[in-house]
Amino acid sequence: MKERDLLNGDLYCITGEKYSLGRDNIRVVKEMIAGGIKVIQYREKNKKMLYKYQECKKIKELTDQAGITFIINDDIALALALDADGVHIGQEDLPIKEVRKIVGEDKIIGLSTHSPAQANNAVKKGADYIGVGPIFKTNTKEDVCQPVGLGYLEYVAENIDLPFVAIGGIKEDNITLVKEKGANCIAMITEIVGAKDITNKIKRIREKI
Ligand code: 3NM
């Protein structure tokens, strides 16, 4: 079921096993859930499909039990095979209208955007939410563009009528800046998966959000 307010005031956690201090994604997701999060995106760029399928199957069981929204990055087939809640795609993936044809009306489609033109286009094309970033410098995404900064975030907060999530280089200690520019949902990879105590890190960050 599509929840249009899914990004309301929370932390959007994304997996990244190579930054997880040797812990596997299943353990990381369990710790994230213990921290009380409402949405998880599975993002693994370099794993084989069968491995991703097996891993996501276990994650789906956990998110179903906890009543958490489960989004899969890039892989539409995997999202459908597992009946995940949605997919998150980038500017160089299939156009939204084609993705919508494949996944149907009930699945969430998120789109990464990096400029006002892309954000406006996402509204026109029917994305359910957008990613807004990278706000700060990040080394986590390989093909990432230069930081768009807080100015783009402010533009989206004031002009774009879609749920959005700020992303890119966001940490516990710069979150207040991001909030001040109008973000009420914030995505993080390394700050969360690279924390020694993921559950406590999430609890502290969620209080700030
Ligand atoms: N997307 P971290 S930035 C996955 O700007 C991703 O669209 C971005 O990782 C975008 O929290 C990014 O470790 C990486 O900086 C976020």
UniProtKB/TrEMBL annotation:
GO terms of molecular function: magnesium ion binding; thiamine-phosphate diphosphorylase activity
Annotated ranges, domain Thiamine phosphate synthase/TenI: 11-192
Keyword Chaperone on entry: no
Pfam family, one: TMP-TENI
SUPFAM superfamilies named in the record: Thiamin phosphate synthase (SSF51391)
Segments passing through the bilayer: none
InterPro entries, A to Z: Aldolase_TIM, ThiamineP_synth_sf, ThiamineP_synth_TenI, TMP_synthase
Cross-referenced CDD domains: TMP_TenI
Residues reported to bind 4-amino-2-methyl-5-(diphosphooxymethyl)pyrimidine: 41-45, 73, 112, 141
EC primary class: transferase
GO biological process, one term: thiamine biosynthetic process
Cellular component terms per the entry's GO annotation: cytoplasm
Cofactor (UniProt): Mg(2+)
UniProt-listed Enzyme Commission number(s): 2.5.1.3
Function: Condenses 4-methyl-5-(beta-hydroxyethyl)thiazole monophosphate (THZ-P) and 2-methyl-4-amino-5-hydroxymethyl pyrimidine pyrophosphate (HMP-PP) to form thiamine monophosphate (TMP).
PANTHER family in UniProt: THIAMINE-PHOSPHATE PYROPHOSPHORYLASE (PTHR20857), THIAMINE-PHOSPHATE SYNTHASE (PTHR20857:SF15)
NCBIfam families in alphabetical order: thiE
Protein name as catalogued: Thiamine-phosphate synthase
Organism expressing this protein natively: Halobacteroides halobius (strain ATCC 35273 / DSM 5150 / MD-1)
This protein's encoding gene: thiE
